Amino acid sequence: MEPNLVRRAQQGDRGAFDLVVSDVVDRLYSIAYRILRHGPSAEDATQQALVDIWRHLPSLRDPDRFDAWTYRLLVHAAYAEHRRRRRQAPPGALTDGATDTDPYPSVHDRDQLERGFARLTAEQRAVLVLQHYLGLTHDEMAEVLGIPVGTVRSRLHGARGAMRAALEADARPAAREWPA
Amino acid sequence: MNDRNFDQLLNAWLDLGPTTAPDRVADAARLEAAATRQLPAILSRWAPRRFPIMNTTAKVILATAAVVLAAALGYNYLVAPNVGSPRLFAPDSTPTPSLAAIDFTQLPGEGTELQPGSYLIDYGAPVEVTITVPDEPFETNPSAWYKAQFDWGPWHQTNSAQLGVGDVENMRVDACDPGPGWQDPPIGPSVADLVAGLDDIENVDITHSTATIDGYSGELLEITGADRPAGCSDSPILWETTHGDEIRVPNTGERLRVWVLDVEGNRLVVWAGQDGGDQGTAADLQALIDSIQIQAP
After folding, report:
1. B82: Cβ contacts below 8 Å, ≥ 6 apart
2. Which of A26, A149, A160 sits opposite B19 (nearest CB)?
3. Looking at beta carbons, which residues of chain B come within 8 Å of A26?
4. Which CATH number is A157's domain given?
5. The complex's ipTM?
6. What is the pTM of this model?
7. How far is the C-alpha of A128 from the C-alpha of A85, rounded, in Å?
8. Cβ separation B26–A39 shorter than 8 A
9. Is A173 a member of any domain?
10. Which one, of B226, B138, B139, lies nearest residue B175 by Cα?
Protein backbone atom coordinates (compact mmCIF):
# COMPACT_ATOMS: atom_id res chain seq x y z
CA MET A 1 0.00 0.00 0.00
CA GLU A 2 1.31 3.42 -0.95
CA PRO A 3 2.03 5.26 2.36
CA ASN A 4 1.04 8.61 0.91
CA LEU A 5 -2.37 7.23 0.02
CA VAL A 6 -2.77 5.98 3.56
CA ARG A 7 -1.74 9.36 4.98
CA ARG A 8 -4.28 11.13 2.81
CA ALA A 9 -6.99 8.76 3.96
CA GLN A 10 -5.89 9.30 7.56
CA GLN A 11 -6.53 12.98 7.07
CA GLY A 12 -10.08 12.30 6.00
CA ASP A 13 -9.63 12.22 2.22
CA ARG A 14 -12.51 10.01 1.17
CA GLY A 15 -11.23 9.75 -2.39
CA ALA A 16 -8.01 8.31 -1.08
CA PHE A 17 -9.95 5.91 1.09
CA ASP A 18 -11.90 4.70 -1.95
CA LEU A 19 -8.58 3.82 -3.57
CA VAL A 20 -7.44 2.11 -0.40
CA VAL A 21 -10.61 0.02 -0.44
CA SER A 22 -10.01 -1.00 -4.03
CA ASP A 23 -6.50 -2.06 -3.14
CA VAL A 24 -7.27 -4.17 -0.09
CA VAL A 25 -10.79 -5.51 -0.49
CA ASP A 26 -9.91 -8.69 -2.35
CA ARG A 27 -7.12 -9.59 0.01
CA LEU A 28 -9.24 -9.00 3.10
CA TYR A 29 -12.13 -10.96 1.67
CA SER A 30 -9.86 -13.88 0.81
CA ILE A 31 -8.64 -14.03 4.40
CA ALA A 32 -12.11 -13.63 5.87
CA TYR A 33 -13.46 -16.40 3.67
CA ARG A 34 -10.75 -18.76 4.77
CA ILE A 35 -11.38 -18.08 8.44
CA LEU A 36 -15.16 -18.24 8.22
CA ARG A 37 -15.60 -20.74 5.35
CA HIS A 38 -18.83 -19.00 4.44
CA GLY A 39 -19.25 -16.45 1.67
CA PRO A 40 -21.94 -14.16 3.11
CA SER A 41 -20.20 -14.10 6.50
CA ALA A 42 -16.91 -13.26 4.82
CA GLU A 43 -18.58 -10.41 2.95
CA ASP A 44 -20.01 -8.99 6.16
CA ALA A 45 -16.71 -9.29 8.01
CA THR A 46 -14.82 -7.64 5.16
CA GLN A 47 -17.29 -4.79 4.96
CA GLN A 48 -17.06 -4.25 8.72
CA ALA A 49 -13.28 -4.31 8.60
CA LEU A 50 -13.21 -1.73 5.82
CA VAL A 51 -15.45 0.61 7.78
CA ASP A 52 -13.29 0.05 10.85
CA ILE A 53 -10.23 0.92 8.80
CA TRP A 54 -11.82 4.23 7.91
CA ARG A 55 -12.90 4.98 11.47
CA HIS A 56 -9.61 4.14 13.08
CA LEU A 57 -7.11 5.25 10.46
CA PRO A 58 -6.07 8.31 12.47
CA SER A 59 -4.70 5.96 15.14
CA LEU A 60 -2.29 4.28 12.74
CA ARG A 61 1.05 5.79 13.65
CA ASP A 62 3.14 4.20 10.95
CA PRO A 63 1.55 3.94 7.49
CA ASP A 64 4.19 1.39 6.53
CA ARG A 65 2.48 -0.98 8.92
CA PHE A 66 -0.86 -0.56 7.23
CA ASP A 67 -1.18 -4.12 5.93
CA ALA A 68 -0.59 -5.79 9.30
CA TRP A 69 -2.93 -3.34 10.93
CA THR A 70 -5.71 -4.13 8.47
CA TYR A 71 -5.26 -7.84 9.11
CA ARG A 72 -5.80 -7.20 12.78
CA LEU A 73 -9.02 -5.34 12.15
CA LEU A 74 -10.18 -8.01 9.77
CA VAL A 75 -9.49 -10.87 12.14
CA HIS A 76 -11.48 -9.19 14.87
CA ALA A 77 -14.34 -8.51 12.47
CA ALA A 78 -14.22 -12.19 11.58
CA TYR A 79 -14.34 -13.14 15.26
CA ALA A 80 -17.43 -11.00 15.74
CA GLU A 81 -19.07 -12.40 12.62
CA HIS A 82 -18.25 -15.92 13.72
CA ARG A 83 -19.97 -15.35 17.05
CA ARG A 84 -22.97 -13.76 15.42
CA ARG A 85 -23.44 -16.54 12.93
CA ARG A 86 -22.90 -19.22 15.51
CA ARG A 87 -25.85 -17.91 17.46
CA GLN A 88 -28.11 -17.62 14.47
CA ALA A 89 -27.40 -20.58 12.25
CA PRO A 90 -28.39 -24.21 12.75
CA PRO A 91 -25.60 -26.77 13.02
CA GLY A 92 -23.93 -27.48 9.73
CA ALA A 93 -25.16 -24.30 8.08
CA LEU A 94 -22.00 -22.28 8.46
CA THR A 95 -19.79 -23.54 5.69
CA ASP A 96 -20.14 -23.41 1.97
CA GLY A 97 -18.59 -26.84 1.77
CA ALA A 98 -15.53 -27.89 -0.13
CA THR A 99 -15.08 -26.65 -3.63
CA ASP A 100 -14.53 -29.18 -6.37
CA THR A 101 -12.38 -27.09 -8.62
CA ASP A 102 -9.00 -28.47 -7.77
CA PRO A 103 -7.78 -32.03 -7.75
CA TYR A 104 -5.34 -31.40 -4.89
CA PRO A 105 -5.82 -31.95 -2.01
CA SER A 106 -8.05 -34.92 -2.74
CA VAL A 107 -11.77 -34.62 -2.29
CA HIS A 108 -11.45 -36.93 0.67
CA ASP A 109 -8.74 -34.84 2.30
CA ARG A 110 -10.70 -31.68 1.72
CA ASP A 111 -13.70 -33.17 3.40
CA GLN A 112 -11.66 -34.21 6.38
CA LEU A 113 -9.95 -30.82 6.57
CA GLU A 114 -13.30 -29.01 6.37
CA ARG A 115 -14.56 -31.20 9.16
CA GLY A 116 -11.55 -30.53 11.32
CA PHE A 117 -11.61 -26.81 10.59
CA ALA A 118 -15.27 -26.56 11.54
CA ARG A 119 -14.37 -27.78 15.00
CA LEU A 120 -11.75 -25.11 15.63
CA THR A 121 -12.38 -21.92 17.53
CA ALA A 122 -12.26 -18.68 15.59
CA GLU A 123 -8.97 -17.87 17.25
CA GLN A 124 -7.44 -21.16 16.13
CA ARG A 125 -8.73 -20.68 12.60
CA ALA A 126 -7.16 -17.26 12.42
CA VAL A 127 -3.68 -18.45 13.32
CA LEU A 128 -3.87 -21.25 10.77
CA VAL A 129 -4.92 -18.87 8.03
CA LEU A 130 -2.32 -16.28 8.95
CA GLN A 131 0.43 -18.88 8.87
CA HIS A 132 -0.59 -21.16 6.04
CA TYR A 133 -2.36 -18.70 3.76
CA LEU A 134 -0.56 -15.42 4.41
CA GLY A 135 2.73 -17.01 5.45
CA LEU A 136 3.24 -14.80 8.49
CA THR A 137 5.85 -15.62 11.10
CA HIS A 138 4.94 -16.18 14.73
CA ASP A 139 6.15 -12.70 15.62
CA GLU A 140 4.12 -11.16 12.84
CA MET A 141 1.05 -13.08 13.91
CA ALA A 142 1.51 -11.90 17.49
CA GLU A 143 1.55 -8.33 16.29
CA VAL A 144 -1.44 -8.76 14.03
CA LEU A 145 -3.50 -10.50 16.65
CA GLY A 146 -2.28 -8.46 19.60
CA ILE A 147 -1.34 -11.51 21.61
CA PRO A 148 1.94 -12.84 23.01
CA VAL A 149 4.06 -15.06 20.77
CA GLY A 150 3.64 -17.89 23.24
CA THR A 151 -0.10 -17.72 22.81
CA VAL A 152 0.33 -17.81 19.04
CA ARG A 153 2.37 -20.99 19.36
CA SER A 154 -0.14 -22.48 21.75
CA ARG A 155 -3.05 -21.79 19.42
CA LEU A 156 -1.16 -23.10 16.44
CA HIS A 157 -0.27 -26.25 18.28
CA GLY A 158 -3.88 -26.87 19.20
CA ALA A 159 -5.19 -26.03 15.76
CA ARG A 160 -2.67 -28.17 13.92
CA GLY A 161 -3.30 -31.04 16.27
CA ALA A 162 -7.01 -30.86 15.64
CA MET A 163 -6.53 -30.70 11.87
CA ARG A 164 -4.11 -33.59 11.89
CA ALA A 165 -6.50 -35.61 14.00
CA ALA A 166 -9.28 -34.90 11.52
CA LEU A 167 -7.14 -36.12 8.64
CA GLU A 168 -6.21 -39.26 10.48
CA ALA A 169 -9.79 -40.04 11.43
CA ASP A 170 -10.70 -41.34 7.98
CA ALA A 171 -11.27 -44.86 9.17
CA ARG A 172 -13.38 -43.85 12.12
CA PRO A 173 -17.03 -42.78 12.22
CA ALA A 174 -17.68 -39.18 11.29
CA ALA A 175 -16.89 -36.68 14.03
CA ARG A 176 -19.58 -34.59 15.55
CA GLU A 177 -20.23 -31.44 13.63
CA TRP A 178 -19.74 -28.18 15.44
CA PRO A 179 -21.50 -25.21 13.95
CA ALA A 180 -18.35 -23.28 13.32
CA MET B 1 2.07 -38.03 7.39
CA ASN B 2 5.15 -36.01 8.29
CA ASP B 3 5.10 -32.32 9.21
CA ARG B 4 6.26 -31.20 5.79
CA ASN B 5 3.53 -33.06 3.96
CA PHE B 6 0.99 -31.86 6.48
CA ASP B 7 2.07 -28.26 5.99
CA GLN B 8 1.89 -28.64 2.22
CA LEU B 9 -1.57 -30.09 2.48
CA LEU B 10 -2.79 -27.25 4.70
CA ASN B 11 -1.25 -24.67 2.39
CA ALA B 12 -2.88 -26.22 -0.64
CA TRP B 13 -6.25 -26.54 1.04
CA LEU B 14 -6.24 -22.93 2.22
CA ASP B 15 -5.28 -21.80 -1.25
CA LEU B 16 -8.59 -23.11 -2.48
CA GLY B 17 -11.50 -20.73 -2.42
CA PRO B 18 -12.31 -17.27 -3.73
CA THR B 19 -9.68 -14.58 -4.06
CA THR B 20 -11.92 -11.80 -5.34
CA ALA B 21 -14.57 -10.03 -3.33
CA PRO B 22 -17.95 -9.33 -4.88
CA ASP B 23 -18.23 -5.68 -5.91
CA ARG B 24 -21.03 -5.13 -3.43
CA VAL B 25 -18.60 -5.52 -0.52
CA ALA B 26 -16.48 -2.51 -1.48
CA ASP B 27 -19.55 -0.54 -2.54
CA ALA B 28 -21.30 -1.12 0.77
CA ALA B 29 -18.18 -0.30 2.75
CA ARG B 30 -17.65 2.96 0.86
CA LEU B 31 -21.27 3.90 1.42
CA GLU B 32 -21.12 3.21 5.13
CA ALA B 33 -17.78 4.94 5.53
CA ALA B 34 -19.18 8.00 3.78
CA ALA B 35 -21.73 8.28 6.58
CA THR B 36 -19.18 7.64 9.31
CA ARG B 37 -16.71 10.03 10.79
CA GLN B 38 -13.22 9.05 11.80
CA LEU B 39 -12.22 8.71 15.43
CA PRO B 40 -9.53 10.94 16.85
CA ALA B 41 -6.36 8.95 17.26
CA ILE B 42 -6.23 9.33 21.01
CA LEU B 43 -9.59 7.66 21.37
CA SER B 44 -9.10 4.82 18.99
CA ARG B 45 -8.81 1.34 20.33
CA TRP B 46 -6.61 0.32 17.45
CA ALA B 47 -3.48 2.18 18.29
CA PRO B 48 -0.58 -0.20 17.74
CA ARG B 49 0.35 -2.48 20.58
CA ARG B 50 3.36 -4.65 20.01
CA PHE B 51 4.03 -7.37 22.48
CA PRO B 52 7.61 -8.11 21.54
CA ILE B 53 8.85 -4.74 22.73
CA MET B 54 7.03 -4.80 26.03
CA ASN B 55 8.94 -6.00 29.02
CA THR B 56 7.21 -7.13 32.13
CA THR B 57 6.99 -3.76 33.73
CA ALA B 58 5.96 -2.06 30.58
CA LYS B 59 3.21 -4.53 30.00
CA VAL B 60 0.78 -2.64 31.97
CA ILE B 61 -2.29 -3.27 33.21
CA LEU B 62 -5.40 -3.80 32.72
CA ALA B 63 -7.88 -4.96 31.24
CA THR B 64 -10.93 -6.25 30.26
CA ALA B 65 -14.13 -7.01 29.40
CA ALA B 66 -16.05 -4.27 30.72
CA VAL B 67 -17.48 -4.08 27.45
CA VAL B 68 -19.89 -1.44 27.88
CA LEU B 69 -17.32 0.96 28.69
CA ALA B 70 -16.59 0.56 25.05
CA ALA B 71 -20.18 0.96 24.27
CA ALA B 72 -20.25 4.19 26.12
CA LEU B 73 -17.23 5.48 24.26
CA GLY B 74 -18.74 4.17 21.13
CA TYR B 75 -21.89 6.10 21.79
CA ASN B 76 -19.96 9.27 22.10
CA TYR B 77 -17.71 8.86 19.16
CA LEU B 78 -19.39 6.45 16.85
CA VAL B 79 -23.06 7.01 17.32
CA ALA B 80 -23.50 10.51 18.60
CA PRO B 81 -25.12 12.33 15.73
CA ASN B 82 -23.49 15.73 15.77
CA VAL B 83 -19.84 16.46 15.65
CA GLY B 84 -19.04 18.85 18.41
CA SER B 85 -22.10 18.04 20.45
CA PRO B 86 -21.57 17.61 24.17
CA ARG B 87 -20.14 14.30 25.16
CA LEU B 88 -22.76 12.03 26.53
CA PHE B 89 -20.33 10.11 28.62
CA ALA B 90 -17.12 11.26 30.13
CA PRO B 91 -14.80 10.13 32.85
CA ASP B 92 -15.62 12.06 35.94
CA SER B 93 -15.39 11.68 39.65
CA THR B 94 -19.14 11.25 39.70
CA PRO B 95 -20.54 8.21 37.93
CA THR B 96 -22.72 9.14 35.02
CA PRO B 97 -26.29 7.99 34.70
CA SER B 98 -27.14 4.84 32.86
CA LEU B 99 -26.82 4.97 29.10
CA ALA B 100 -28.96 3.56 26.39
CA ALA B 101 -27.91 0.08 25.44
CA ILE B 102 -25.39 -0.06 22.65
CA ASP B 103 -24.70 -3.16 20.64
CA PHE B 104 -21.05 -3.35 21.51
CA THR B 105 -20.64 -6.52 19.51
CA GLN B 106 -20.71 -4.27 16.49
CA LEU B 107 -17.70 -2.40 17.77
CA PRO B 108 -14.38 -3.88 16.81
CA GLY B 109 -11.50 -4.29 19.02
CA GLU B 110 -9.97 -5.54 22.10
CA GLY B 111 -9.50 -2.57 24.27
CA THR B 112 -9.51 1.10 24.74
CA GLU B 113 -7.22 3.44 26.53
CA LEU B 114 -8.65 4.92 29.69
CA GLN B 115 -7.86 8.28 31.10
CA PRO B 116 -8.07 8.75 34.87
CA GLY B 117 -11.59 9.00 36.12
CA SER B 118 -14.65 6.96 36.88
CA TYR B 119 -16.34 4.92 34.22
CA LEU B 120 -19.75 3.42 34.08
CA ILE B 121 -19.78 -0.18 32.99
CA ASP B 122 -23.21 -0.92 31.67
CA TYR B 123 -22.90 -4.47 30.45
CA GLY B 124 -26.49 -4.90 29.44
CA ALA B 125 -27.91 -5.92 32.79
CA PRO B 126 -29.79 -3.84 35.35
CA VAL B 127 -26.81 -3.71 37.68
CA GLU B 128 -24.59 -0.70 37.14
CA VAL B 129 -20.91 -0.88 37.90
CA THR B 130 -18.39 1.93 38.00
CA ILE B 131 -14.66 1.62 38.07
CA THR B 132 -12.11 4.31 38.78
CA VAL B 133 -8.77 4.67 37.07
CA PRO B 134 -6.45 6.51 39.44
CA ASP B 135 -5.07 9.94 38.73
CA GLU B 136 -1.48 8.93 39.22
CA PRO B 137 0.27 6.53 36.90
CA PHE B 138 0.06 3.00 38.00
CA GLU B 139 2.94 1.76 40.02
CA THR B 140 4.20 -0.63 37.43
CA ASN B 141 4.10 1.62 34.49
CA PRO B 142 4.86 5.24 35.22
CA SER B 143 5.95 6.02 31.70
CA ALA B 144 3.70 3.92 29.55
CA TRP B 145 1.61 5.66 27.00
CA TYR B 146 -1.49 4.13 28.36
CA LYS B 147 -2.56 3.70 31.91
CA ALA B 148 -5.30 1.22 31.73
CA GLN B 149 -6.61 -0.70 28.87
CA PHE B 150 -10.00 -2.19 28.89
CA ASP B 151 -10.01 -5.21 26.79
CA TRP B 152 -13.03 -7.30 26.07
CA GLY B 153 -11.23 -9.96 24.19
CA PRO B 154 -10.82 -13.47 25.46
CA TRP B 155 -8.39 -14.15 28.23
CA HIS B 156 -5.53 -15.07 26.00
CA GLN B 157 -5.66 -11.82 24.16
CA THR B 158 -4.81 -9.80 27.18
CA ASN B 159 -1.58 -8.33 28.22
CA SER B 160 -0.27 -9.08 31.69
CA ALA B 161 -3.47 -8.56 33.63
CA GLN B 162 -7.12 -8.17 32.97
CA LEU B 163 -10.30 -7.24 34.73
CA GLY B 164 -13.70 -8.22 33.49
CA VAL B 165 -17.19 -7.32 34.59
CA GLY B 166 -20.36 -8.84 33.29
CA ASP B 167 -22.36 -12.00 33.48
CA VAL B 168 -22.33 -15.47 32.04
CA GLU B 169 -24.30 -16.32 28.94
CA ASN B 170 -23.77 -20.05 29.07
CA MET B 171 -21.27 -22.84 29.52
CA ARG B 172 -20.11 -25.62 27.28
CA VAL B 173 -21.40 -29.14 27.68
CA ASP B 174 -17.75 -30.17 27.47
CA ALA B 175 -15.23 -27.46 28.31
CA CYS B 176 -12.62 -29.21 26.20
CA ASP B 177 -14.65 -30.11 23.15
CA PRO B 178 -16.81 -27.65 21.25
CA GLY B 179 -18.58 -30.52 19.51
CA PRO B 180 -21.46 -31.04 21.95
CA GLY B 181 -22.14 -27.29 21.99
CA TRP B 182 -23.65 -25.19 24.73
CA GLN B 183 -25.65 -26.38 27.69
CA ASP B 184 -29.35 -26.71 26.99
CA PRO B 185 -31.08 -25.40 28.98
CA PRO B 186 -28.47 -22.72 29.61
CA ILE B 187 -26.80 -22.36 32.96
CA GLY B 188 -29.23 -20.92 35.52
CA PRO B 189 -29.21 -17.29 36.66
CA SER B 190 -28.24 -17.62 40.30
CA VAL B 191 -24.88 -17.47 42.01
CA ALA B 192 -25.27 -21.10 43.05
CA ASP B 193 -26.06 -22.17 39.47
CA LEU B 194 -22.84 -20.73 38.14
CA VAL B 195 -20.67 -21.91 40.99
CA ALA B 196 -22.03 -25.43 40.63
CA GLY B 197 -21.51 -25.32 36.89
CA LEU B 198 -17.90 -24.28 37.24
CA ASP B 199 -17.31 -26.92 39.88
CA ASP B 200 -18.57 -29.53 37.45
CA ILE B 201 -15.83 -28.81 34.91
CA GLU B 202 -13.38 -31.66 34.97
CA ASN B 203 -9.68 -31.21 35.59
CA VAL B 204 -10.02 -27.63 36.83
CA ASP B 205 -8.77 -26.78 40.29
CA ILE B 206 -11.05 -24.26 41.98
CA THR B 207 -10.86 -23.03 45.54
CA HIS B 208 -13.82 -21.32 47.19
CA SER B 209 -14.22 -18.58 49.75
CA THR B 210 -16.76 -15.95 50.58
CA ALA B 211 -16.03 -12.42 49.52
CA THR B 212 -17.66 -9.05 49.02
CA ILE B 213 -17.20 -6.24 46.56
CA ASP B 214 -18.66 -2.89 47.49
CA GLY B 215 -20.77 -4.54 50.15
CA TYR B 216 -22.32 -7.20 47.93
CA SER B 217 -21.43 -10.72 48.95
CA GLY B 218 -20.90 -13.87 47.00
CA GLU B 219 -18.31 -16.48 46.29
CA LEU B 220 -14.74 -15.93 45.28
CA LEU B 221 -13.42 -18.71 43.10
CA GLU B 222 -9.70 -18.93 42.54
CA ILE B 223 -8.69 -20.92 39.51
CA THR B 224 -5.07 -21.81 39.15
CA GLY B 225 -3.63 -22.43 35.75
CA ALA B 226 -2.64 -25.95 34.94
CA ASP B 227 -1.31 -27.99 32.08
CA ARG B 228 -3.88 -28.51 29.39
CA PRO B 229 -5.81 -31.72 30.05
CA ALA B 230 -5.23 -34.57 27.66
CA GLY B 231 -7.60 -34.32 24.76
CA CYS B 232 -8.02 -30.57 25.03
CA SER B 233 -6.87 -28.75 21.92
CA ASP B 234 -6.87 -25.47 23.84
CA SER B 235 -7.39 -24.36 27.42
CA PRO B 236 -10.79 -25.50 28.72
CA ILE B 237 -13.57 -22.95 28.33
CA LEU B 238 -15.07 -21.81 31.62
CA TRP B 239 -17.94 -19.80 30.23
CA GLU B 240 -19.11 -17.53 27.48
CA THR B 241 -19.79 -13.95 28.51
CA THR B 242 -22.97 -12.15 27.67
CA HIS B 243 -21.05 -10.38 24.94
CA GLY B 244 -19.85 -13.56 23.33
CA ASP B 245 -16.30 -13.96 24.54
CA GLU B 246 -15.00 -17.19 25.92
CA ILE B 247 -13.27 -17.13 29.28
CA ARG B 248 -10.82 -19.99 29.60
CA VAL B 249 -8.83 -21.69 32.27
CA PRO B 250 -5.58 -19.77 32.62
CA ASN B 251 -2.28 -21.20 31.53
CA THR B 252 0.19 -22.77 33.90
CA GLY B 253 1.54 -20.22 36.34
CA GLU B 254 -1.39 -17.89 35.90
CA ARG B 255 -4.29 -17.29 38.24
CA LEU B 256 -7.85 -16.24 37.63
CA ARG B 257 -10.06 -14.89 40.40
CA VAL B 258 -13.80 -14.92 39.83
CA TRP B 259 -16.24 -13.14 42.11
CA VAL B 260 -19.79 -14.35 41.66
CA LEU B 261 -21.93 -11.83 43.47
CA ASP B 262 -25.59 -11.51 44.29
CA VAL B 263 -26.70 -7.94 43.77
CA GLU B 264 -30.22 -7.96 45.11
CA GLY B 265 -31.16 -11.01 43.10
CA ASN B 266 -29.04 -10.16 40.07
CA ARG B 267 -25.87 -12.10 39.40
CA LEU B 268 -22.76 -10.08 38.74
CA VAL B 269 -19.49 -11.69 37.78
CA VAL B 270 -16.15 -9.93 38.16
CA TRP B 271 -13.05 -11.71 37.00
CA ALA B 272 -9.44 -10.71 37.35
CA GLY B 273 -6.38 -12.47 36.13
CA GLN B 274 -2.72 -11.98 35.71
CA ASP B 275 -0.41 -13.85 33.41
CA GLY B 276 2.85 -12.46 34.59
CA GLY B 277 4.08 -9.09 35.66
CA ASP B 278 5.16 -8.34 39.19
CA GLN B 279 3.74 -7.35 42.52
CA GLY B 280 3.19 -3.87 41.24
CA THR B 281 1.04 -5.21 38.47
CA ALA B 282 -0.96 -7.13 41.02
CA ALA B 283 -1.31 -4.01 43.13
CA ASP B 284 -2.55 -2.03 40.16
CA LEU B 285 -5.05 -4.70 39.35
CA GLN B 286 -6.22 -4.80 42.94
CA ALA B 287 -6.59 -1.02 42.95
CA LEU B 288 -9.06 -1.26 40.11
CA ILE B 289 -10.94 -4.07 41.81
CA ASP B 290 -11.11 -2.03 45.01
CA SER B 291 -12.47 0.92 43.07
CA ILE B 292 -15.52 -0.99 41.88
CA GLN B 293 -18.82 0.50 42.93
CA ILE B 294 -22.03 -1.40 42.36
CA GLN B 295 -25.46 0.10 41.96
CA ALA B 296 -28.37 -2.30 42.31
CA PRO B 297 -31.34 -1.79 39.97
Report:
1. none
2. A26
3. 19-21
4. 1.10.1740.10
5. 0.81
6. 0.51
7. 20
8. no
9. no
10. B226
